[in-house]
Amino acid sequence: MTAGLWRWLTRRPSVALISAALLIAACSKGGPDGTVVTDQTGRTVQIPDTVARVVSLAPNVTELVFAAGSGSKLIAVTTADDFPPEIERLPKLDAVPVNFESVLALAPDVVLMNAEINKQDDADRLVELGVAAVMIGTESIDEVADDVRWLGALLNSEQAADQHAGMLQSAIDSLRSMTSSVQNKPRVLFLIGYNTLYAMGQGSHIHDVITTAGGISITAALRENPVLNEEYVLAEDPDYILVAGDGSFRPRDLTDAHPSFAQLTAVKNGHVEVVNADHVLRPGPRLISGTYAIAAILHPSLYGDR
Questions:
Q1: Measured between alpha carbons, how far apart are the two ends of the chain, in Å?
Q2: What is the per-residue pLDDT across 107-117, written as a single tens digit (0 to 9) for each?
Q3: Structural Rg of the chain based on CA atoms
């Protein structure tokens, strides 16, 4: 993605193992120097026993912190943050690259980072400068609820986090029960923008979103973050094309940029749709509503009465 594309992808160990590591560390290594935790990339980080001042360096992480019941602990977010409305009162920091001076001036107890948006070298540099930097990542829709619980444990807001995570997981399970009976699963091309054909490859949460919504992502086996050419799209001939964007996108924008796409099945059947970029590219709580929206596009008869 260009600077505005911020890819919202990560790689991480099993959530169950991470959560166990975090809780074991919290129970066994607390003391005058703080608590040693294992973050979601396997890094060990020492954090204060009491975390009251938190900086988020990724918009999806900000949303997860609020979902975990610790939004009041945030003292700064990024210039790209725009949700929830409560963040408008907070200072905005550059995250790509990290403005170390601005972060240090705020004297945070913990800095929360996304393993793909933010570089691990930046997290390690913050630790060298005396600031605990913890990295978070999400590869599937189920891991959103796991992330909320993980942050609840980290930020001492377990009760609120568990409640919200339970609601999110219930919504995910409900959608899966709706789409599991679908016999004909459409082949879906997910694009970020339409002039240059940015797509999602291996390791992206988008494929799990499409699967949960009752579709098949045609780029799931491609390398990470591929840029497609027209020949690939024509050969694959997807049933649906979903474009992450805003309300300004029109289906004809795609064929204006790529006239050969007029012969695609998705175009002929009127199955070129825009999906809210913030709801699908940011793996936070709103990813669930984004997945429901995709299900409504792919299976309107199944979803319409719900």
A1: 35
A2: 999 999 998 78
A3: 20
